[in-house]
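**User:** Here is a favour to ask of a fellow structure person. Please take any protein you like and set down a full record of it. No explanation is needed for now; the record alone will do.

**Assistant:**
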Amino acid sequence: MIIDILRAFIVGGIICSVGQLLIDYTKLTPARILTGFVVAGVILSAVGIYGPLVEFAGAGATVPLTGFGHTLAEGIRKTISDDGFLGIFTGGMTAAAGGITAALLFGVLGAAIFPQKDK
């Protein structure tokens, strides 16, 4: 149990540290870094590296944005095997629908509870 928490903490910390290094030492905008993390998750999943990392680190690998890319890639892979070519267009959103919905609902809830104040 504690070893799972440590694995998640270490792997998630490494992923976040890479993001911080990109912010500190490159001229990349935060939007490009975030997009790069999603694309990196897709690519690492496609070449078979990210799946074992998820098995090893659990939430430490699935919670960062690279995990979102992995979820998209795995959803597409599964839907292609089930539905064929159409899975390219539907698989990613089907796999990530729960997370996207939760993000939208919690965003609206947060905006309702903490309204923006003009400065």
Summary: The two ends are 47 Å apart (CA to CA). Residues 2-113 form one domain.
